[in-house]
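Dear colleague,

Following up on Tuesday's group meeting, I ran the structure prediction for the two-component complex that the binding team flagged. I've pasted the input sequences exactly as they went in, so you can double-check that nothing got truncated or mislabelled along the way. The structure tokens for the whole assembly follow below. Feel free to forward this to whoever is handling the docking comparison.

Inputs:
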Amino acid sequence: MRTVGVVVILAVAIALSISMLIARDAVTNKINTVKASTGTTVSVSPKGFFGFNGGGTPLSMTTIDALLNLPNVTAVQESFSEELSSSKTSLTSPTPAGQLGSQFGNGGGFGASGSTTFVIPVRVIGTNSPGNAVVGGANGGGTEKLTSGVAFSPTSTADVAIVGSTLAAKNNLKVGSTFTAWNTKITVVGIFNAGSTFTDASVLMPLATVQKLADAPNEVTSATIIVNTIGNVSSVDTAVTKALGSSADVTSTQATTEAALSPLNSVKTISTYTLIGSVIGAAIILLLSMLMIVRERRREVGVLKALGAPNRSINSQFIAESTTFTILGAIVGFVVGIAISSPITSALVSASGGSTSSNTGGFVRRAGGFAPGGSGFSPPTGAFANRGSGAFHFGGFSNTITQIHTSAGWSTLFFALIAAVVIAALGSTVAAATIVRIRPAEVLRSE
Amino acid sequence: MLKVENLDKTFRTGAGDVHAVRDVSFEAKDGELVAIIGASGSGKSTLLSLLGLLDAPDKGSIDLDGIELANLDSPGRTQFRSRQVGFVFQQFNLIPNLSARENVKLALEFAHWPKNDRDARAHEMLNLVGLDASKADRRPAKLSGGEQQRVAIARAFAAQPQLILADEPTGSLDKATGQKIVELLREVANTQKATVLVVTHDEKIAKKADRRLEIDDGILKEIT
């Protein structure tokens, strides 16, 4: 009965250790995944710039290109965007103005005034990194995927374009079709889909071509600096800020990522401490149990010593017992730990303030809104959307950040084995130390 | 042949020194059964601990067949005890989760008897003390007190030690069984040519011994 009790208590402690280990691994994987996907970029935009609503002077491409020479910078993605009204392009936006568009259009911006019918302009993005999230993130979509045709090269100067799927459908465009922009015939070489109506109403063209046609040589309206590791984002942010001075707004994703991941980091800390605590707890349980067992069998130990048993022989018997307890506890604990790891992880994430609310990303209504006419800057690219409060907020993945998948791999099994060995060793050590101190003469004299 | 000379042992306690064994000297021949009698606290158990190498004397000599034992270190005493000393206790002190046969084999294991011979030797010893095969595989709890003491005697003699120390071996048995056990001790001692020292406070048991020694306040005297 006592043996069952010891095994059950050990199993509970080991189950808690295993579930904490699994929770910790799952959260760590999630944190790493999020950091790997969002945390290694620094965004650059002209000072005071915010999409169609801000101002600012375009940045110099020469200056931006020079950022590639900074330490830990692996790539620089540049873009130059313009909103083309019907007077500048043959394309018609597939996006209806609707109530919001009419309200914003009449309210100001893009040169509209009075009761003029508002027409959504067509956004053209010149980029040197086609296919690499230029129209995703803040613009409501994701990395664009070609559904037909081919992409142009990053250094192309040809009058070619990749057209968003909804814009292509609205204007009956296919690969090989042509349209006009800035009075120039542009050939469609591909159709893309980026996941939202807004982004799929855009046109992607080579950066050099747009700069040439818009008469804006050497100008860029946004850039994304790719950093080699998350740990270097802060230093690159500082270096870019220093290099560009007051001409640009520099924002990195690191701080925002860290803030968003804060609940998960809390869970990781909690699970680490609980893991350590439960392993120590299991060791103490076994240690006290073995101490009790050795004390109860003090006479037996004394008799064995009187018969000539060496300490190592008696110790090995007790070590075998404590190892048996631990192995039984570890087997039961491992199974139970795996079973309860998922609900425990969910409970920890919820208790740590992780939100499970869904945010589909994209633009959120702000005062000022869209307005037709003139040139506009596209907002910084990246994985965050602006909510209008001035602070960045997770857009596309806040709904998935708390969706954590738990699983037990070989590493978990290996840990369980190591923990069992450590626990058994600690338990046995005390038993051994007690056994060595038992003097048979004293034990047998007390008969 | 056991030869003890000037053996002395003092315990230091909070209440002062306790001189448990004082200048004890005596001899015992192979195959001889010697009874040591004395009241509680007279020092007889301490004397047995010293002779059984469970404790070291402060001074004096213990010579067994020409080997000086008093100056052995702890591992040396353990090794010598496993091969040359057998114990029989009042409470039998068999290992409860082992069968009678396994208890006997345990002593053989500690004495490093060849593995292949242990079963046969255990069987032989259990036969010698009058336990048949049907009881050899029973655990101590399934045996009577007399049977348990027989197993203990079989265990004590199994490794063919030169010295057997029996501490109140009949203390937990009825009179008739106690008599049989003492006779058994004498018989086995003769068979194996071992010296047997029996500590007892029962005069009737002591009278069955070849010689009687009395210990009082740590001082040992021969009773003639």
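The beta strands of chain B are 2-13, 16-28, 33-37, 59-64, 67-68, 85-88, 163-167, 195-200, 211-216, 219-223.

Cheers,
M.
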